[in-house]
């Protein structure tokens, strides 16, 4: 049964040698987390992406017809006809030709709650260019977003602090400014031809100015918040700082909760945590003089990563992510129970890529293989061996944050690193 509170989405994915092959199962999870009910998934294989529509023209029209059939109307206007008819060129200026399979009709199973075209969202499991998004929005006359925007929508839903709300607004404004710039260029060329470029700018100027003003205000406010955070961090610098880092949904917050006996939100969905939190944890340790002693450590949990995270999002969250630069040890949390082993390796690679971007590759790190309660002993051993082969220089520890298996090993490792650093 379709949940009427959910928004209706059609997911489209283009597979092409030049495109990042995002996982379709991950898209299903992201769409669900953002509140969408997917009614159809439409893949298309292309040798080259269509410079104008991203998709092949035939597919664009088929999707349109499929939606039109449901609404019993045809919304084509003169401009759309022209856009579809006009000749296409690839990035080298050669006429663009594509193979089209006109045979495959597309039929959708729309829920009864859909009354307007605008109630449908087309989500691309790709990264669209602004021109593609503009053209497709005009042709289909409905909301078109890509994977980056979907992730941004999830962030918007989950942001709770003033800082994270500002960071997301900034990412959204950056995205919209780029779209408006493209739209403006297109508008001027359409209406006035290249010779008159600049004349129609006046109408857009107030909007752009408002965007610029708001962006500056947000940046200034974020700077103030960041300064305040620096002060708080200075207070923590006398302690040993451990950062929990890794792919979204790996179990970072669950681990922090178990260690700190806290109750931060955890959930079987992406980007539950948006705002970093730090907690002091006291690990019992055995001193040389034979006495038990409490070792204080600060543990920080933060926003999780995702494959090929958009630069707009990384930039907006840079100040949050840069917090990790002040860690003395990073625990790279990995969900070792994923069905596909290749996906686990991809997620570890993603974590390293973002770590390089936020300049934390010099910090000692440990791979924490979480969710072992989901795997048989034999299966786990095989996976651990493979990971050791691939990353022989990084220590690893297998745990289950759910039932607290392996937590004594984590404590030992943290204390060993802490003593190496001679923190007191
Ligand atoms: N089976 C099992 N599930 C776990 C384990 N650790 C965490 N989970 C579950 O995995 C899901 C994600 O856990 P979180 O702690 O929210 O993950 P996170 O890394 O903080 O995720 P984000 O904040 O979204 O980046 C939740 O449903 C947890 O209950 C584990 O050891 N075993
Ligand atoms: Mg979390």
From TrEMBL:
Chain ranges of the Hflx-type G domain: 240-421
GO CC, alphabetical: cytoplasm
GO molecular function: GTP binding; metal ion binding; ribosome binding
Positions with a binding annotation for GTP: 246-253, 271-275, 301-304, 370-373, 400-402
UniProt cross-references to Pfam families, sorted A to Z: GTP-bdg_M, GTP-bdg_N, MMR_HSR1
UniProt keywords, alphabetically: GTP-binding, Magnesium, Metal-binding, Nucleotide-binding
Metal-binding recorded as keyword: yes
Name of the featured protein: GTPase HflX
Organism: Promethearchaeum syntrophicum
Taxonomic placement: Archaea, Promethearchaeati, Promethearchaeota, Promethearchaeia, Promethearchaeales
Gene: hflX
